[in-house]
Amino acid sequence: MSQPVSPLPDRGPTGRRTKGTLSSATAKRVERPAPLRQVVYEALAELIINRTLEPGQHLVEADLAEYLGVSRQPVREALQRLQSEGWVDLRPAQGAFVHMPTDEEADQLLSVRTVLEAHSARLAADKAGDEDIERLWELQKTGLEALAADDTEGLVSANAALHTFITELSGNTVLAEMIGMVDRRVRWYYTPIARPRSHDSWQEHEELIKAIADGDATTAERIMNQHTERTRQAFHERPKEA
Description:
There is one protein chain. By secondary structure, the protein is mainly α. It contains nine helices and three strands, in the order αβααββαααααα. Strands 1-3-2 form a three-stranded antiparallel β-sheet. The chain starts with 35 loop residues before the first helix and ends in a 5-residue tail after the last helix. The mean pLDDT is 86.
């Protein structure tokens, strides 16, 4: 049976040799004076969401502390919080592991996202002005540039930015809060399918922006519904993780 892989670069900030899958280029050093436990939590959450720390990966407190340049206590607190939120599994006598999402979990969350974002697109079509439409096309351009560069992280970021802006255009703060609650996990699920979905996804975005620009709320809602539903289907059809 193979040993768990530690998520550290070859050497940590103190020069101690470590092992792992993170490169120095991706190092996410903790900055102060923000509350340390919060900053460590955010850093680890982001590493999980962008899949630098992969589903099923063993998380060693000492290695994570070395990588982030902090003591083990805030790492332990962060792992406990991540466990309570479903990002990490704490197993007796084994330690912490990045949660392995199930198809059922993804299906439930992405189905909720479809309903919320379809309504958001309808409201955005009713409210968007000329400057808003211009901003949507700028976000679309950013996504197409990431697509041309085969930049998975850029695709995920651009996709999230475009959807977030459409939510803002809806003008519904309750809806925005609800979408915000699922946004991080949507990014987590979207990362492994960003590249295979990319061409179709950005073509659908173009059609969506045109509907919003035309003030066609019904068409915008329909396109967004189809768009998010295809993302849900693509997640189920992805190559299964080990």
